[in-house]
Amino acid sequence: MGKASFKVVDFGVTKYGEKAKKYILNGAGGVVLEVSDYGGKVVRLFTPDRKGKMKDVVVGFDSPAGWDNGDPYWGCIIGRYGNRIAKGQFKMDGRTYRLPALNNAPAGIGCNLHGGKRGWDAYVWGAEPFVKGDNVGVVFTHTSPDGDEGFPGKVEVKVTYTLTAKNVWRVDYEAVPDKKTPISMTQHVYFNFKGESGGTIEDHVLKIAASKVTPTDAGQIPTGRLAKVGGTPFDFRKGMRIGERINEKDEQLEFGRGYDHNWVLDKGEMALGKKAKGKMNFAAELFCPLNGRFVKVYTTEPCLQMYTANWCDWNQTAKGGEHLSFRCGCALETQHAPDSPNKPKWPTTFVEAGGKYRTTTEFRFGAR
Ligand code: BGC
Questions:
Q1: Which is the closest atom of ligand 1 to the Cα of 256?
Q2: Which of 165, 213, 260, 353 has the fewest CB neighbours in a 10 Å radius?
């Protein structure tokens, strides 16, 4: 086993004129995680294949410039609210709050996505790297002011990335608002276990521990219904190649141009009720049969958004001259269901003034 260590290097300047740094975390188990204080973005992540060969397995850029456009939110921390809020508005205690509703606006059904125009991903956060025994990591901190992107209340946020000797990347989210407000955070890293310029992830095999999804309308807002996955292209319970059914004629797949949906985890709070709240459970596994690399995702969150980068077939060049192609990555975003602030029957995302928002997600890497 190696020794956990870190190194800090300059990473350039964001379009907001903020200077960013990169933290290279050398895990004692061999995995190397390079992250920036620019929205906690994962720049590189090296994991071993079944022969022990290391490769960078995330989509990302060499400098802030590639990330400055926001969408598709490559590799970053998402807040204050991950995924969509219908029409960019929600009601809380009798009052209506209005947020930017830019996403899907051309379709005439605008909604708020991933925190708004300038979400938490677009700020340079405070960052404290650490080594604690076999663990290495960074504590990221950010203050979101009252009224930020239309949301009520100032929020003090802390996200801790820890890389363990067992090649686990743990993400601990904590946030405390000074007024009641909705909070649902996630990490938006896109994996491709074939590495740079690996092409589509349709050959990766995915397992999701969920019997239900939340179908959406054409504007990708959950209808409020829960649908069983059995017999549909959304059944990943036993493991299925992502490309197996992705191009089938299916209204849901047409709305998302592929997979871009929220799965209700069988052991989570949304499926089982309050008694399951905050318990850490297996959510998903992404496996590349070609080289054996895998990640197993464990989370305290009730849901998982699985997104296959369906909207990125433009000419963008990423790290090392990599051309980003259609479906070049798979994001496994642990979260509360999209539009929960407008769905009173679903597990709440409202956090009381002075209350603690706290969730944990683990990405456990390996090869077989
Ligand atoms: C959303 C997608 C969106 C992507 C990038 C995902 O979480 O569900 O619809 O295109 O993030 O913004």
A1: 9
A2: 353
Distance CA 198, CA 274 (A): 41
Paired sense of beta strands 205-208 and 42-48, if any: unpaired
Q: What is the pLDDT of residues 212-245, one digit of tens each?
A: 999 999 999 999 999 999 999 999 999 999 999 9
- Residue of the nearest CA to atom 11 in ligand 1? 72
Q: Whose CA is nearest to atom 12 of ligand 1?
A: 72
Q: What is the pLDDT of residue 108?
A: 67
Phi (first) and psi of residue 239, to 5 degrees = 95, 130
Between the alpha carbon of residue 124 and those of residues 30, 100, 173, the distances in Å are 28, 21, 17
Residue 42 tokens read as 């994962």
Cβ of 333 closer than 6 Å to ligand 1, yes or no, is: yes
- Assigned token pair, 140: 């990221």
pLDDT in tens, 340-349: 999 999 999 9
Residues carrying an active site annotation: 188, 333
User: What percentage of residues in the chain have a pLDDT greater than 70?
Assistant: 98
What is the 260 CA–ligand 1 centroid distance (Å)?
7
- Name the closest-CA residue to atom 2, ligand 1: 260
Q: Is the pLDDT reported for residue 187 higher than 80? A: yes
Q: Which atom of ligand 1 is nearest to the CA of 260?
A: 8
Residue 6 CA, ligand 1 centroid: distance in Å: 31
